[in-house]
Each structure stands twice: as C-alpha cells, then as structure tokens.
Amino acid sequence: MIKLTARYFGAAFIFAMAIGVSGTAQADDARDRAAGAAVAQELCSGCHIVAEGQSGPVPDGPAPFPVIAERPGRTVGYLQAYLSAPTPPMPHVPLSKREIDSVIAYIRSFAD
Ligand code: HEC
After folding, report:
1. 41-61 pLDDT, tens per residue?
2. Domain range holding 9?
3. How many domains are there within the chain?
4. Which mutation among 67, 80, 90 tests ligand 1's pocket best, with the greatest number of atoms within 8 A of CB?
C-alpha cells in the first residue's frame, strides 16, 4: 500500500517536472491527484477498489472509483455533495475540504 502511494507521488512529481513546476494549472492538478490518491489509499481502499491493479479484498457493493467516474452525472458538484454529508449506504468518512477536493480530482482523473 505504501509502495503504491509512493508510486503515485513519484508519477505526479515526474509529471510536474515535465511540464515545469511554475504553478501552472496542470501542476496543481497533478499535485491534487497525487494527494487524492494518498487519501483514497488510506481512507477508501478498505471498501472501494481505488486504482487499477489494487490488490486486497473489498466488500461487495461499493463501486470501484474508475466505475464511479464513468457513471453519468458524477460531476465535481455531485461528488462534493456526496462526500460532504452522510449518504447511506456509504458510512460518512470525515474529510477536510482539501481532502475532498483532492480525492475528487483523483476520482475524476479516471474519466479523462
Ligand atoms: C465502509 C465502506 C466504505 C468506505 C470506507 C468508503 N466508501 Fe464510498 N461507498 C461505500 C458504499 C457501500 C457505497 C454505495 C454503493 C455505490 O454507490 O457503489 C459508496 C459510494 C460511494 C460514492 C458514490 C458513488 C455514486 O456513483 O454515487 C462515492 C463518490 C464514494 N463512495 C467515495 C468514497 C471515498 C472518496 C471514500 C474515501 C474517502 C469512500 N468512498 C470510502 C462504502 C464505502
């Protein structure tokens, strides 16, 4: 799990270097996605498949993040509302605004 997270940070870092770390929107996006990947690994991967190739069992029911990203209407606004309030059957996972934004950037990256 730690190795996987390190890989995402590594990939985001290389991506950020490649386009120049000058505060460009793309670099910000890459940083958000990397932070979101870390949040997903830590807080979501017990129930959701959060990346292609994730190993380890998850319960039946919760959709993998790549599947959620492809469902119609899973906009940033929808995901913000979903993650900000208790929304059964998913138990509420308390997240900071920053964690919500980054994990949404990460989920949405599967729809690109
Ligand atoms: C204890 C198990 C559990 C954990 C932990 C969990 N989820 Fe869920 N999640 C569910 C269940 C159950 C559903 C409802 C089934 C579905 O929509 O696929 C769900 C649904 C969702 C949905 C809505 C899917 C949709 O299309 O409407 C999103 C988005 C989501 N989870 C994101 C997250 C994120 C982000 C985290 C980590 C911060 C997380 N979940 C952690 C169980 C969990």
Report:
1. 999 999 999 998 888 889 998
2. 2-109
3. 1
4. 90
